[in-house]
Amino acid sequence: MILMAKKIVKKTNKKPVKKKAAKKIETKVKQSGLVEVEPKSLPFGNQQIPLDVFETTIDIRSIQPRILVIGDIDEEFVKSIEEHGGNFEPVIIAFIDGKYYLISGLRRYFGCVLSGLPVNSDVREMTEKDAWKIAITSNLARKDMSLYEEGMAYVKLREIGEVQNDIAKLS
Predict the structure, then answer these.
(1) Nearest 5 degrees, angle CA 148-CA 134-CA 150?
(2) Other CB atoms within 10 A of residue 114 CB
(3) Nearest to 140 by CA among 159, 126, 153, 127
């Protein structure tokens, strides 16, 4: 954040922050918990990912056809995760161009967050197109996907270059 503040100072042509003032700002930032966390490097394959690592390293929304929020998760599902000591089926995480994305298992991830347990995950390297195909096909199989989500999923398949005949086979 201090680096950002220095860039802003340079753009606005104001005097740079003095060392003593910069140290004071740095201390306040650290106390507030706003210090930027370096993302962890995750090995490929099956593993348990602690919630703090998951939240600072993995993007859960960018490659996700469902509009699901944590409030949509029912208590029975959370109790089931607690009884089994975590999510039984791993979520799928795609590693694309140096970044990690949750592509399948958003509901299971939220269940782990609510239960406070690490997330059983399968980390794979893949292309963005393959990630979208997996995310969409795994969600189209679900019965609780809304018509809007389903329609947008088909639109996204067209955007990533899927032909109409292949899309028709999915429905």
Answers:
(1) 10
(2) 17
(3) 153
For β-strands 119-125 and 91-96, DSSP reports them as parallel
Q: Are 62 and 101 in contact (CB under 8 A)?
A: yes
What's the whole-number mean pLDDT along residues 132-157? 85
Residue type at 160 in one-letter notation: I
Q: Is the pLDDT of residue 121 over 70?
A: yes
Task: Name the average pLDDT for the chain.
Answer: 77
Can you give the pTM of this predicted structure? 0.70
Distance (Å, whole) CA 119 – CA 50: 6
